[in-house]
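Minutes, project check-in
Item: structure for the 220-residue chain
Input as provided by the requester:
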Amino acid sequence: MSPLTPPGDRPQRADARENVRLILQAAREVFADRGYEVSIEAVARRSGVGMGTVYRHFPSKNALVERVAIDVMTETSAEIEHLSRAEPDPWTVFTRVVRYIAQARSSQLFPVSRRRTTEPGPELVAAREALLAGFADVVTRAQDAGSLRRDVTVFDLVLMLNSMPARIPEESGGNPSADLAGRQLGVFIDGLRSPGGESLPSPGADRRDLDRFFRTRFGL
């Protein structure tokens, strides 16, 4: 299924596909600028299409948010696969993947809405599982190479990445917030190098911890 085709839809005409593309692009921009609590009207205004057109393709806000989340997770999985093939050094792959995920999250596009009113659909669940599996493989290879400390789990990393501030507020006269966010991320990554300077309390986070986190925070 194309990322531009909402689940369950038949193949669309060219103008309908273009409308979906405009809506999804606008949704990403609006969600990044103002968060998930913005109205569908704001997305429609940004996209330049009418409200009826938005609802024709996405019957609810949850459906639109879920489509955006699926697309971002799918793109992230593809980027992980590309980096893994193109770069032979496991630590370099790991750091680039972490930075990519952090960037996706800094745009507030990585999780789904915190106010879901429906259960996540199977396509969203599949996209999440594929992304987690790809990231886990990157983590394992970096640990096997002796670059990444072994006392962290992939679940630790996902929880930490989702707990970091998505944005650092800008203040007049200060450094650009993007630079400060990058600095924080650099400190985070450096602390993951093997060997670690201090033993971590055990055990590390596991799948149950991750599921509980996503269920309570994002409705996943």
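Outcome recorded: Residues 12-59 form a domain with the Arc Repressor Mutant, subunit A fold (CATH 1.10.10).
No further action items on this chain.
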